[in-house]
Amino acid sequence: MPEDIESKSPWTPLKIIQWAVPYLTQKGILNARFDIETLIAFALQIDRLKVYLQFDRPLDSSELDLIRALVKRRVQHEPIQYITGKREFYGLPFRVSPSVLIPRPETEQLVELAIQYLKGTPEEKRIVLDLGTGSGCIALSILKSLSCQVWAVDISENALNIALENAKELSLEGAVHWRQGNWFSALGSNDPDQFQVIVSNPPYIALSEENELAPEVKGFEPPEALFAGESGMDAYRDLAKSLNKRLILGGIALIEMHSNRYESISKLFEGPNLKETLYPDLQGLPRILKLEK
To answer: In what order do the strands lie in the sheet with 247-256?
Structure first.
């Protein structure tokens, strides 16, 4: 923010928006209007739509200082979700931090497919495993939608702490069996041997593709949740080793994929007792691989 935005100036939300939109756009921020409205709302602790009702509200020095600091962070391409610490997913509020991947809208399709399948399954058989849970958005969205038993795995302790906080805020504290470790090996002897539904949005970006990522992604989101070796296939290979034996007969696995590598990923999971179905995203790109045993 320019230095002339001081507490003595009659700055209002509208005046800040009028200045900030071209400024953020010049700095390469794609959704400048939405972002500045979101930052103003966050600073004033109101809903973004209510910013319109307070366009002419004079802002005090503390509010201006906070908005200035938030804009500086956004100009550095820090994701708006990390700045506010919030992200809506499947109609639910989730806390996020640089310890977890920011939930993407396309992952909601994975949740929807899991719920559709589980609705047709007797409640006592609804045993779900979420591999690479991150913020817990997949596991908790499923559990918030219907009654089931859920296990959720992540290798990162910090990610699991965020997931635990989200569970508490969604009134699901104690409802998920959280496990720290690498994929299936995180499960212990007292955990189920097989699951009716296995879901995963694993890391799938090749290290060679790092420079193709948006600065918001490359500079801020956790590398362990993004990258999967030189080919981007490491996580899929790990999952393919044990997925078949961990899936109950008649059960399904739903795996989010890199659209450019869906053929290679599909081949990894090929088996005589696994039926594969491919689901495209809203852009028509291959996105979810369903494996039915």
So the answer is: 176-180, 149-154, 127-131, 195-200, 247-256, 286-292, 275-280
